[in-house]
Each structure stands twice: as C-alpha cells, then as structure tokens.
Amino acid sequence: MYDKKTWFVVSLCIAGLIANFYFAPTPPPATQAQDQFNGTAANASGSSETTPQTPTPSPQKEEIKETLVTVENDQAAFVLTNIGGGVKYAELKKEYEIGDKKIPIRINTDGKYPVGALNRNGQADELPYFYMPEQSTAGKTAVFIARTEQNHVIKKIYSISADSQKPGAPYLLNCKLIIECGTDAPLQ
Fold first, then answer.
1. pTM as predicted
2. 10 Å Cβ neighbour count for 117?
3. Edge-to-edge, what's the strand order for the sheet holding 86-96?
C-alpha cells in the first residue's frame, strides 16, 4: 500500500514532533509579583501559602458623553469620536452591502477602539478628547485635543485629502498628530 519512502517521511515527521516537544522552551518560573497578583506568596522555607488579597480600590472612570463629528466628501464619510479621538467608522457612500442598494458599507463598525486611538503599554488610550469646533471646518476638518495625566497635550487634526484627482484620494483621511510636553518630564 505505501512504499518505503512514505514510511521514512512519516517516521521523520514523528521524530521531529517528539524533538519539538523535548527541546521546546519551558515557561519561566513565576515571579514574586505574579505570586502576589495570584494571591500566593513564598515564605522563607520556599513553600507557598495562599494569602488573602485585599482589593485595591480602582478609580472610577467618569462616564464620558460621546461626541460624533463627521468629515466627508462625495465618496466617503468618516465618523470621528471624542472617546479615543479617532475614526469610529467610515461609510462608503456609493458602495452598498451585498444584495442591498440602500445600506452603504460601513468599515470598523465592530471595532473595540477607534482607528487612530493611541496605544500605551498594549492598551488603547481612552483619553477624553475635546472637539474644537472653532479650529475645525464643518464637514472638512476636525480637531480633537486631550490632556494626559502627565500634563501633555495631544492634538489630532483630521482632514479630507485636498487632491481628489489622485487614485483613491476620496477614500483617504489625513491625520496630523501633535504632542506637546506640558512639563519638564520626558514623554513616555
């Protein structure tokens, strides 16, 4: 049924799998910080005991009222949000859902964070941004400003591409990011 070559290749694959499990790196031992996080701490004899954890009160996040601002042209509409200061979703005005000529396609509707939200230590930054209508042009540019805990000022300026003759230009949104250091401390 199978020739010698087939059995040889199968045997090599099995040997490779066994070698992979044998030489695979082992996870590092738990550190003291991880033990404290999990509720166990090593005593002087090296055994671990379960210690009761007292929950540390976490600061309550203020509920921020979401403000939506639309920047658009004849092909696309970009709906921006002040929570994270980014694009909540983009709507293609002349492209429709499959089988429907009334519902336009929306991109990033199921996104957890807006496109353009800053990322800090692996977490999206949920700073409350303030929409600045006096610095914006209705329907064409939108300016959002936020202040961090370190007193740094973050300014995001979104605008529709001015050159509509380039290929794909109607679907492009320009983003200018300005970070001003509000203290003598370095940016982190």
1. 0.62
2. 22
3. 68-72, 76-81, 86-96, 104-107
